Amino acid sequence: MVVPYKKVAGLDELTDEEKKDLMVLVDRCVVALKKAMNPDGFNIGINLGKVAGAGIVEHLHVHVVPRWNGDTNFMPVIAQTTVLPQALIEVARQLRKELS
Predict the structure, then answer these.
(1) pLDDT of residue 25
(2) Domains in the chain and their CATH numbers?
């Protein structure tokens, strides 16, 4: 997740400069994840409001989720798919290296 320092619920509460900074950081995270994990693609998204699925409604955040062919997510899963597990501590170590 990419979270701005300024605690806001929506994009409209950020200045244009803050929005730019947020997207620059999202891009940095994508680059780091590509180097560290070699995914086949990404889901990048923002859930605004409780009805849209925002778990932390009062603090805007951007999800940056690496994806691989054959992985699963929160959507219904059908026939012969698998999860590609990796310990979060190892992922954190790899990302810290790439982001430093």
Answers:
(1) 96
(2) 11-99 (3.30.428.10)
